Amino acid sequence: MAGLWVGTVSLVAARWRGRRPLQQLLWTLQHVPHYSQRCLVVSCSLSSVGYDPKEKTFDKILIANRGEIACRVIKTCKKMGIKTVAIHSDVDASSVHVKMADEAVCVGPAPTSKSYLNMDAILEAIKKTRAQAVHPGYGFLSENKEFARYLDADEAVRIAREIGYPIMIKASAGGGGKGMRIAWDDEETRDGFRFSSQEAASSFGDDRLLIEKFIDNPRHIEIQVLGDKHGNALWLNERECSIQRRNQKVVEEAPSIFLDPETRRAMGEQAVALARAVQYSSAGTVEFLVDSQKNFYFLEMNTRLQVEHPVTECITGLDLVQEMIRVAKGYPLRHKQADIPINGWAVECRVYAEDPYKSFGLPSIGRLSQYQEPIHLPGVRVDSGIQPGSDISIYYDPMISKLIAYGSDRTEALKRMEDALDSYVIRGVTHNIALLREVIINARFVKGDISTKFLSDVYPDGFKGHTLTQSERNQLLAIASSLFVASQLRAQHFQEHSRVPIVRPDVAKWELSIKLHDEDHTVITSNNGSTFAVEVDGSKLNVSSTWNLASPLLSVNVDGTQRTVQCLSREAGGSMSIQFLGTVYKVHILTKLAAELNKFMLTKVTEDTSSILRSPMPGVVVAVAVKPGDMVVEGHEICVIEAMKMQNSMTAGKTGKVKSVHCKAGDTVGEGDLLVELE
Description:
This protein is of the alpha+beta class. The strands form 11 sheets. Strands 15-14-11-12-13-16-23-21 form an 8-stranded antiparallel β-sheet, with helices on both faces. An 8-stranded antiparallel β-barrel has the order 27-28-29-30-31-32-33-34. The chain has a 4-stranded antiparallel β-sheet with strand order 1-10-8-9, with helices on one face.
């Protein structure tokens, strides 16, 4: 693990006591305390510097200056066998420093603000010429912290190469996946450095970063520890936290199905040894990466209460917040290591206001128009801080709640979680219930065959929702038709009096056409009280329920199988949205006559989206990289949008010329807002 401490360095002609070679001082990242982030002036005397031709330094250096200091730097670079890049304004095109350099790039017109102080143009020159380092000379940008901050990415690349790819860039003050990027090469390191430092500054007020080796395809298992001020420390078993998206945990459980008692004890003892070594007194978590052979590697220690602490509380019976308060007051721990049990199994799902169909979860904002937690179910706990009418905004983490299910064993805990997810009512914002439910019923997850790459492995093309079996499809269609007929029958009554019947009393059957996933199905439905006999494409099913259409939850029995469904919307035109097995399905239901007439309706022309860029989420525009008239290629960064402290790069979908830009830095945008148009 390598620490990145951001600082800026400039060179002037004076004296450097260490007599180290000049090249070692070029825009190097200083491993010094955080207060050194102000500009530092490093002095160097020519008479005291020696050059060793065997030393490997840089292949190419860009001199971000002009005149005599640029010439001076170029001379030394030539002695050292380093190629040079000169920058110049248009009026300096024939200057001496331009002629001396191996390459030259014009960075703008004569005014210094548009040339030698033009950071964007100089950074583009660095990128274009592939310069490995920058010498600022003096004046201009030599003591500009912001400019140096951009160049710290070069140091990140150097460290990444030393460690060996792939690497992880992460905020030193952070957590929750914010300020964290994986890089597999130099280009990804530079991009990751930029986004991670910006996210870190935005989320934690601290843009310092760490670079460490990225271990591919591990499990993420952590040990809960508890220490007091009397030298006592305990490990409270482990939590399995491998199900993650964007390096943020989604599903956690305790204990881990993967660990054997010996490995659990070894990890716990090492976690406690670490806590004692630093005289830690509170609840804390020591995180490890674990490979397929049960080798474990220290990741970090979080000296706080973790989001997922409830699963530990469930299997140990301890109230961790209470223990933290007791320890803070100075009381010794009340338990010995032998007192810490593993009773049962607990699973936690993080319920977020986000769209799981977009990169496993892009933020969603809005007001909770209806909200009902499934706390009536056995073994279910919900930790939340919201209520009906609460707002989910772009400014904070989009977590709605932590849903915890506890059982005597893993099978019971997962079944209770499945029921809880089906019974959770969240209206007004998009949520990730569908993804959570699919994870916990997935065959690999149930077997315990998981890693931190689980989501990308199981859903390589992104999450698409639940894939219905033929039996499940028939159940959904039978439920939908029964809901449709039940609503039509209810509409025939008004204040206990019948209206004009929609169908003749002697007509006992409803012949319907239901469209699901662009496929038409013939469904024949008849009712006898609260039970409907339904024929779906030739298959016969019996559907019964109380048919309380005013309730957000509906318990339905289909041929002996109990299902909890939610009818999210019913429209006059026959469209209906039903949450079934966690996923929301849109069905379009028409009577046979209406279906025949619908064939003559004009279809809506689909919008051509190849030339437009819309915001995929609500957020704030951090930067815009293009202007009208610019040429962009497919994949070129157009702008950056920050949502819930996470920065997202918006790229061009095709090559073309920018026609118009509809946003600027600082703008707040909503999901679907037009950002940029291409010709």
